[in-house]
Amino acid sequence: xxxxxxxxxxxxxxxxxxxxxxxxxxxxxxxxxxxxxxxxxxxxxxxxxxxxxxxxxxxxxxxxxxxxxxxxxxxxxxxxxxxxxxxxxxxxxxxxxxxxxxxxxxxxxxxxxxxxxxxxxxxxxxxxxxxxxxxxxxxxxxxxxxxxxxxxxxxxxxxxxxxxxxxxxxxxxxxxxxxxxxxxxxxxxxxxxxxx
Length: 196
Prior knowledge:
- Helices cover about 55% and strands about 10% of the residues.
- It has helices at about 30-45, 45-60, 60-75, 75-90, 90-105, 105-120, 130-140, 180-185, 190-195, and strands at about 1-5, 10, 15-20, 25-30, 155-160, 175.
- The longest helix has 15 residues, at about 105-120.
């Protein structure tokens, strides 16, 4: 048992953080009081703390990125569990957010969805697909039927389908009509299909 210097309550040693500098090897404040003291300190010195953190991040952005990446890897399972719990507790809100995102940023949604499907099918992924480069290369001409595509009818299609071992790369992605893409489904395009 130990008495907290802040709240004055006697608590078991497990309620105190370890601190080698203290004679008994534990901090003066219990964990609850330590958390409260840290919050109060942050509230009193918010601007100074933010300025110091921003200065550090600006001084060494690569180290900051690497540290965040390592944190993400180290706590990946915990973060996934937290995200799953939030999604289950906030299903309607999550679906509304997804619908809004898809409506506001259809190009980004399309890219992310293609990447997700590629990963799900186990396709080889060679960096990000540059959809602007695909458009520049193919123009607005459907690679399946050879006709002009209106902007609102534009879709991107994998020439060799992911389910047939095709890769998710700029060289395997082509522009197509929505109807042509859906009609093709996951088949390989034959010469006869192109002439139709």
